[in-house]
């Protein structure tokens, strides 16, 4: 099998004698929520969704590969959402990015929603994990980021804020970033594809939530082709690596 991983937006040209490929898309993770000296602990960002499809392609044609970037944290404010990931067009196959973690001064903020399978496009779609909630109060710890979704399952839910901070969820996709305790540190970054960022804990100075991880696209196809009577290769989802 030929397996090509794209970690950034680019193009791909279909090689000769190939008419079907397996495409896997991972949405970008959302950033964690920020915190300030008078806020609650920030909540974790949501993990990105996952989508898989077998797609027809034409030899010699160049296709767009769009990789969603992870959301960036904002000081003493809500984080930014993760970007969507797709191949060719956003109506061909699509994995939604994760929602942003929140900043709050009015109580424990809810974690960012994971990228939704229902809003994604593919033969197989799984949702990213929800970020963990931040703890209320000016000494509140932050929530962990939600895990990125994978081939077989959705992403895990990030841990809620606690003295030691929440732990990012994980499954087949990337792990979420770890939340942080009451000590005024920035939330951990999302790990691997699609993980959401951890929130920032309360501190004497304003801080940003952790960034979400970027998404990715993985293309898999037979490494050798029969030039006569080529048919779609019956490789199975989840066995591409």
Question: What's this, in brief?
Answer:
With 241 residues, the protein is an all-beta fold. It has strands at residues 2-6, 10-13, 20-26, 50-56, 62-66, 85-87, 93-95, 124-126, 216-221. The protein has one domain.
Shape label: elongated
Radius of gyration: 19 Å
Number of extended strands: 9
How many helices?
A: 0
Determine the N-to-C terminus distance.
8 Å
Number of domain units:
1
Q: Outline the biggest β-sheet.
A: 5 strands, antiparallel
Helix fraction, binned, reads: under 10%
Order of helices and strands: EEEEEEEEE
The strands making up the biggest β-sheet line up spatially as: 1-9-3-4-8
Structural class: mainly beta
Mean pLDDT: 83
Q: Catalogue the unreliable spans.
A: 226-241
Strand content: 15-25%
Helix and strand topology:
Blueprint: E1 2-6, E2 10-13, E3 20-26, E4 50-56, E5 62-66, E6 85-87, E7 93-95, E8 124-126, E9 216-221
Antiparallel strand pairs: 1-9, 2-5, 3-4, 3-9, 4-8, 5-6, 6-7
